[in-house]
Amino acid sequence: MNQRILGKTGISVSEIGIGAWQLGGPLDLDGKQDGHPDLAKDFVINLIRSLGERGINFIDTAEQYGGGESERRVGEALQGNRDQWVISTKFGSYRGPQGERVNDVSAARVPLALEGSLQRLRTDFIDVYVYHIAPDRNEAEAVAEFLNNAKSQGKVRAVGISTNDLATAEYLHPIDCLDVVQFASSILNPQTTLTDWLATYSIGGVVRGAFAGGRLSGKYFENPPALADTDIRKNWLPADADQLRAEFAKYAAFEPMLTGDRTMVDLAIGSLLRKPTTHTIILGAKSLTEYENGIAATAKPPLTTDEIHQLERIAAVLA
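and the corresponding structure tokens:
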């Protein structure tokens, strides 16, 4: 597995990373399902360890995922091999004592969030610690001061935010609170303005959403996914069966580009890896096979200029 340096942090990360939201089990927030079916703790731990053996070293979680269960599972999975992994986790949004969603990025709350994540992850430090939601601008400078003190104490190596909003990144940068940005990007949503800005300031780029919710996976061109009622994607897709089928079928427009040497996964991953601000791509997969397909895509030859132009033309039509 190839590795890249995460912007100006000096941290070396695998080109494919693990997204651990779906590994934390189901979660109720405000009385609504906001998570995934439970894959079982032992399965998740074995999956993470197996992926480590295949060269993946980056894993992303959050205090909210599974009500903290995602961090606990990640922490247990990495025991004995912590030095071989780069852990990213997010703060600011969590499950309250009555199951309510709580958003709090105050200077009073963030230290508690950090200590909680360190305990659940069974580690003395977090490599990448990022805002899960937009900063509170009345509190952001005090939070930045705390995070920089945490850096000097060795509890945190790099800080940043999960966002696609350039204005938010521009705000955090001059207050010294932006080493890394996690953002959604894909063939359909290349985020050129944001990535150009990241490159200007050598900000680390952690990319999610490479398959656009399964649309670019190639698995659902003929038949849409059959989703359990507890699957979070159920909230974002058409309820009508015909509309759901049409929503996924239209992405079969990419099929003429698929050959024995190029899968849809190859195209989706390759289109992102060609960008200098793609340092790692986190996948929200639930199986070893899906991750292995992503790993294999990183070993394929880079996309040609003709392939890139074809992808851009098809994406423009779909848009």
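(Above: one complete record from the training split.) The mean pLDDT is 95.
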